[in-house]
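Title: Comparing notes on inverse folding

I've been comparing how different people in this forum approach sequence design from structure. To keep things fair, I'm posting one structure and asking everyone to reply with a full sequence. Here's the target:
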């Protein structure tokens, strides 16, 4: 996924703050900082990467706070959590008007690449119809080795 524009990231951050207020949860500087890291990411960040970025910015946040905030970001619908079989999750922003994408995961280096494919998207309802199945959502993850 390409990095969100500043306006899109700011809109998601405001949506997150509104979610916190609507659910009587504290709107804190630490939550804002964590949300900013995730919402301005151009990749799929791990908790370790989020903590490293926060440290580089001089922000001191406990690991438990990072995990709790990530859970709330996902519940608020402004971020998505992915488990690519690595025994940990990766997080990315979830913009409202995003084109659906799939993932290529390198089993050697852990690199995650996103792709879209119009033919694949057109095939999903055809396959579902052939099996009398109603699709609500889908996810495709391809595992292998990248060029690097």
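Reply #1:
Here's my take.
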């Amino acid at each position: 996924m390409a990095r969100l524009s500043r306006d899109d990231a700011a809109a998601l951050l405001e949506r997150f703050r509104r979610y916190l207020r609507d659910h009587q949860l504290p709107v804190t500087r630490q939550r804002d900082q964590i949300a900013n890291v995730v919402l301005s990411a151009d990749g799929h960040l791990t908790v370790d990467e989020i903590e490293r970025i926060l440290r580089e910015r001089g922000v001191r946040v406990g690991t438990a706070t990072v995990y709790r905030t990530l859970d709330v970001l996902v519940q608020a619908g402004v971020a998505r959590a992915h488990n690519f079989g690595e025994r940990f999750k990766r997080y990315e922003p979830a913009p409202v008007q995003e084109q659906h994408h799939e993932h290529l995961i390198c089993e050697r280096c852990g690199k995650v690449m996103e792709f879209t494919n119009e033919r694949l998207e057109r095939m999903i309802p055809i396959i579902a119809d052939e099996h009398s199945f109603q699709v609500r959502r889908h996810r495709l993850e391809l595992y292998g080795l990248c060029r690097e």
